[in-house]
């Protein structure tokens, strides 16, 4: 039986500063079912508080502890490993690491941090890694879109440190398995009892299905025709938008009768 | 195996072969004189990203080696050579001290990227500019891809990680011009009228000097000198059985 639903944010619940039509009501309907809901996203420069504010402005009824980001995943890993990280992250991401000790670091966490990506700081990180510090990457995006054009993402700098030290980073964001497993931590739900709804076929749906969840691909956001053919196995379901996904869940996945997984 | 052709050129590595830091290898100056008495072209070859030919020449003259500037061929020379051949205008991510080796090369409105060891240029804004040039189709030329190097205060990132970063970001491959790349050795012979099969390379680095040279058809002589750590210790002797009787005065 379905116990948990993971929902991607950007492109699925909202597009920039506009909600996907009908999404707020669909979320209310989803909550009327007895499922745990988590909102999941890759980000390296927005703290949970920032995300919450944006969603509240769009009249989504969400609480902060339902939000799970790649920054949360990084913090989680740092706590599990009991390390003190050197944080190469944007200042705006620092609130998500409140309470984590960062003096005398013995780990390196890399997010999107242009103001920290210069030789001296990268060299400090390099030396920590040579001493055995683990390298944690929020994600490895090659580049991203800014107002003034494309700009280097965190991926190239993580790769630079991997090349210099001959070690591999642990990547914590989507589509990594650990991201999805961590999102369920504390919910009491297993991957097999979970559905993930997102607009990115590879990172949202593919990643979730790789850990045993069902994936629903929505045709909003960055979706492009034919995306559903890019992963194997294909998405459990491809549908128009988040409200349609919720309808499907309420109609087909909450039955108390034991259902085999449709593929 | 075909008979070897007559020897016409000798390539000599600098650091570790002719000299160790600021001391000449004992007897090397005289050996060089004897080599010159034979009718061979001599070239001095080295990977460097922050010493111009003038700097290298000065150091060698201080150690009483009789060398002229146009006999020196470095990875910077190789990069310049490639830039000229491709007829591009490079964005030069190189140390200031290396700039003299690019005198006369146009660098405004760049359409190529050259990366050496340039700590003061390895920061986000400049790397982003390079990234955008590469996205526009500019070729990426790497002086070499060393992971790190030794400084007084410890190990420090080399140019390799930054070249790799740009390769990853753009999904293109850099052309590496330094040893042990084939192009380095072929370029070193440019203008000498000599073929690789008529050339011997002498060096202390088995993979970068001897291996690289033999990969293009030269003979390689591995010398048992070279700096490891703080002391000069012998390296294991390699496949040195490639001397021919045409070599008149081995160092």
From TrEMBL, chain A:
The entry's keywords: Coiled coil, Magnesium, Metal-binding
SUPFAM superfamilies, sorted: HAD-like (SSF56784)
CDD domains for the chain: HAD_PPase
Domain (STAS) ranges: 1-78
Gene3D superfamilies the UniProt entry points to: HAD superfamily/HAD-like (3.40.50.1000)
InterPro entries attached to this UniProt entry: HAD-like_sf, HAD-SF_hydro_IIA, HAD_sf, LHPP/HDHD2, STAS_dom
GO molecular function: metal ion binding; phosphatase activity
Domain of life: Eukaryota
Cofactor(s) recorded in Swiss-Prot or TrEMBL: Mg(2+)
Pfam families linked to this entry: Hydrolase_6 (PF13344), Hydrolase_like (PF13242)
Entry's family note: Belongs to the HAD-like hydrolase superfamily.
Protein name per UniProt: Haloacid dehalogenase-like hydrolase domain-containing protein 2
TrEMBL record, chain B:
A GO CC term attached to the entry: cytoplasm
Cofactor(s) recorded in Swiss-Prot or TrEMBL: Mg(2+)
Annotated Pfam families: Hydrolase_6, Hydrolase_like
One Gene Ontology term of the molecular function aspect: phosphatase activity
Annotated STAS domain residues: 1-83
Keywords, alphabetical: Coiled coil, Magnesium, Metal-binding
Family of this protein: Belongs to the HAD-like hydrolase superfamily.
Protein name: Haloacid dehalogenase-like hydrolase domain-containing protein 2
Organism (species): Equus asinus
């Amino acid at each position: 039986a379905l116990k948990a639903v993971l929902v991607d944010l950007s492109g699925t619940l909202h597009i920039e500063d506009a909600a996907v039509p009908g999404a707020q009501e669909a979320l209310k309907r989803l909550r009327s079912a007895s499922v745990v809901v988590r909102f999941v996203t890759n980000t390296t420069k927005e703290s949970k508080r920032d995300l919450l504010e944006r969603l509240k402005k769009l009249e989504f009824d969400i609480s902060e502890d339902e939000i799970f980001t790649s920054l949360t995943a990084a913090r989680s890993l740092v706590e599990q490993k009991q390390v003190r990280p050197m944080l190469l992250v944007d200042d705006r991401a620092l609130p998500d690491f409140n309470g984590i000790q960062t003096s005398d670091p013995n780990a390196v966490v890399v997010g999107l941090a242009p103001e920290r990506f210069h030789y001296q700081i990268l060299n400090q990180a390099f030396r920590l890694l040579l001493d055995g510090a683990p390298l944690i990457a929020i994600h490895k995006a090659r580049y991203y879109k800014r107002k003034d054009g494309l700009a280097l993402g965190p991926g190239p700098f993580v790769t630079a440190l991997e090349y210099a030290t001959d070690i591999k980073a642990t990547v914590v964001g989507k589509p990594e398995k650990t991201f999805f497993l961590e999102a369920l931590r504390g919910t009491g739900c297993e991957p097999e009892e979970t559905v993930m709804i997102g607009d990115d076929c590879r990172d949202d749906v593919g990643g979730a299905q790789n850990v045993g969840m069902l994936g629903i691909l929505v045709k909003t956001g960055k979706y492009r025709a034919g995306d559903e053919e890019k992963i194997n196995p294909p998405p459990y379901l491809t549908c128009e938008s988040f409200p349609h996904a919720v309808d499907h869940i309420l109609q087909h996945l909450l039955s108390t009768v034991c259902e085999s997984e449709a593929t």
